[in-house]
Amino acid sequence: MKDLLGKAILDFQTNNAPQNVITETDISEAEEMDISYMFRQYKEMPTLEQKALSLAKGKVLDVGCGAGAHSLYLQNKGISVKAIDISSHAIETCKLRGLQNTEVINLLDIKDQQFDTILLLMNGTGIFGKLINTTKYLNHLKTLLTPGGQILIDSSDLIYMFDTDEDGGVWIPMDNKDYYGELVFNIEYKGEHEDPFNWLYLDYNTLQNAAHANGLECELIQEGENFDYLAKLYIK
Asked: Which residues form the Methyltransferase domain (predicted)?
């Protein structure tokens, strides 16, 4: 990947003529994302993110940390946090912002480490890519948990984006998809186009069923105002 989102994050941090990022999916039209949102303070975060941060404890792993907004908040509270991202530009930004423990790494490549809290926020199920990958990720996450550890993850039910008929049924064009929350994302930044990538939104019931099937308990912590939710996963 060209890491255009990471470039936008680093451009903003270094004041290198940053521009908004244009995002588009296979079920939604193009829209601009203000890159400053990646640098939001705690008071500017959605309530689901604030709730997750209030529950974070012990040794924390922040997966897909972006510009490090969540990790910085926790670090400033004296909590031990490791911030990871596959974007080298994002991690460079995190270091410039003062994060002490960062690494450019894919979640699936982390071995022989355990954490009391694993954060997957800003649609944390997105990194699964497709529904079929959920089991692989959940089983790997289990290996990274200390006894009594927790995974705090958020996502949204995208059912609201599809048309409803007169009988209340929802018409969902699957188009070679296994699940309606499987999206293909496109990103544009400064005239460059990112390679399309898969991104998964999971409704709570589907996440809960997948968790139970893979030896995890799943607890609904809080629901948001836009079909979004925060869940806690932990080993039985």
From this structure: 58-157
